Amino acid sequence: MKTTDLFSKLSKRLSSLERLKKLDDKKSIPSILEEKGVSRRDFMKWAGAMTAMLALPANFTPLVAKAAELSDRLPIIWLHMAECTGCSESLLRTDAPTIDSLIFDYISLEYHETLMAAAGWQAEHNLESAIEKYKGQYILMVEGGIPAGENSHFLTIGGHGKTGEQNAIDASENAAAIFAIGTCSSFGGVQAAFPNPTGTVALSKVTDKTVINVPGCPPSEKNIVGTLLHYLLYGTLPALDVYNRPKWAYGLRIHDLCERRGHFDAGEFVEEFGDEGAKKGYCLYKVGCKGPYTFNNCSKNKFNSHMSWPIQAGHGCIGCSEPDFWDTMGPFEEPVADRLYNTVFGGLGADATADRIGVGLLTVTGIGIAAHAAISKFKNPKEDEE
Length: 386
Description:
It is a single chain. By secondary structure, the protein is an alpha/beta fold. The protein folds into 2 domains: 73-250, NADH:ubiquinone oxidoreductase-like, 20kDa subunit (Rossmann fold), CATH 3.40.50.700; 254-385, Cytochrome-c3 hydrogenase, C-terminal domain (Cytochrome-c3 Hydrogenase, Chain A, domain 2). The protein has helices at 3-18, 29-35, 40-53, 61-69, 86-92, 99-106, 120-133, 164-173, 183-187, 221-234, 247-250, 254-257, 261-265, 276-279, 298-301, 310-313, 325-328, 350-354, 368-374, 381-385; strands at 75-80, 108-112, 139-143, 146-147, 156-157, 162-163, 177-181, 200-201, 212-214, 340-343, 346-349. Residues 84-230 form the NADH:ubiquinone oxidoreductase-like 20kDa subunit domain.
């Protein structure tokens, strides 16, 4: 689609949203942001950054800003399943609220167990009423894995003994869009790790409707809000990868965007935590970084008010946005190189394979990333120290 046609299409979509009645009597999002000290300039800078994240041209920034301002026009139901509430906490509990978290504070959250005052039968009634009142209109966001089937009793909610699985099924049935927030909801998370005694599964396993996965432990607040903005703009689901993750957020590996990538390419690696390489900010692959195997945009978004992220702080990526990461990415401080790969060089660990091939083969696909990492040791830097 041509850029001009897309601009026209999104403009019409937002105009239709603008005609919708506000769902409550709260102040508008622009007025709330102003009260919180967010200038129009800062808001537009934020909208520009979100526009870039969504892979839209810069001249679409006013549309993204408008979508954010209209985000209180669509009802949202947020369910908690088997989880730690970390995804909600990362978005809402900050000492210096970002524009992302402020917007999420004032969208029309019809049900959110962490935030609402209601409890007991009143909370159950609120959920049932919201599902019925906004049938076919609401966005469903689910946080946490779901004990399912014969194990569904491990998560029982409310006085009527209704299971979390049944709540998720009922809420999914009439949702306009469904987002799995966090790795637990997207893929099962730590609850589904071996031996998975509670039979926990991903949200997508209990509904036959399309689920947009927004994994991470926790996911970036920008990936949560950005997914919502995309739906507001388009009214349709975004382009998804093979694991139903939005490509605009999960299209590149941590490795592709890593600030330590130059050290990786130069063969400069941390051999153990606290060594000279660690002090110089060398690549963390040798101490377990799973960045070459993990798709996310953490280095762009960062955490703690966008201050830092694990690799910047000195610890490798643990692959938390990948399916079954708890089982497949561990031990977290050991390289994946210990696993065997079937390659043209035989069944070798990734690092062992790399030691046998030259720099000229580093672009080979498949094992190329793991191979590249291990090529560092033409000469062990510790030998220099000796």
